[in-house]
Amino acid sequence: MTKFFANLHMVLAAGVLLAIVVMFGAHADMVTANAVFRWLHLFFGVTWIGLLYYFNFVQIPTMPKIPAELKPAVGKHIAPAALFFFRWGAAFTVLTGLIVAHLSGYLVQALTFSDPNFKLIGIGMWLALIMAFNVWFVIWPAQKRALGIVEADDATKAAAATRAMIFSRTNTLLSLAMFYCMVNANNG
Ligand code: HEM
């Protein structure tokens, strides 16, 4: 039992298996590509936003309280691993979200606001696209400097850390409206 739970890949494989049992056991007539991509979309979205909230609720506020000699444990080990799943979670959330919109037949109408029925999901998609842009083109490059993954002097590092914090906080701000749009696009 301990061996099973100690192996993350085994646990994830079991989770996928259980999901497949539920899909075909309780939802068999409706297991379309759209349903599967909605499910994957949520998995990647939770991975992404879960880590965004970890940075904002846990890591950023706790860092100043950590003794200097322990800070490298976070900066050199925890943060780079969290940033890996964070940025790839964002990329796959975008990809699966765009696929869901395409399979639902409203990708262009939603993104161009040309049909009022898809206004809410259009707003949600644009909010999430801005957030994903911030992850890949602002937060990640800034974090690479702040964490010393690419060379930078101390002043550049400090400026990069501030920039990453501001854009990370911006994404936290945007996430609440984005969630409203995502979960209510299909609700009436
Ligand atoms: C650029 C990124 C994103 C795009 C393009 C996108 C796109 C979509 C689309 C097209 C839908 C289907 C709406 C419908 O017709 O019911 C949807 C639903 C949803 N999305 Fe996103 N989304 C993005 C980001 C996120 C993020 C970050 C989350 C966070 C967890 C999220 C969570 C959800 C949820 C919970 C649903 C509801 C599924 C349902 O009720 O059918 N999305 N998204």
What does this structure look like?
- The protein has 188 residues and is mostly helical.
- The chain folds into two domains: 1-31; 32-184.
- It contains seven helices and no strands.
- Helix 3 runs antiparallel to helix 7 (154-184) and helix 4 packs antiparallel against helix 6.
- It binds protoporphyrin IX containing FE.
- Residues 38, 41-42, 45-46, 48-49, 93-94, 97-98, 100-101, 104, 121, 125, 128-129, 132, 182-183, 185-186 line the site of protoporphyrin IX containing FE.
Highlighted features:
single chain; binds protoporphyrin IX containing FE; 81% helix; mainly alpha
Please summarize the sheet with the most strands.
Answer: none
Separate helix tally:
7
Low-confidence stretches: none
Q: Specify the overall morphology.
A: flat
- Cα end-to-end separation: 45 Å
Q: How large is the radius of gyration?
A: 19 Å
User: How many distinct folded domains?
Assistant: 2
Number of E-state strands: 0
Instruction: Work out the helicity level.
Output: over 70%
Measured by DSSP, the beta-strand proportion falls in under 5%
Class from helix and strand fractions: mainly alpha
Bound molecules: protoporphyrin IX containing FE
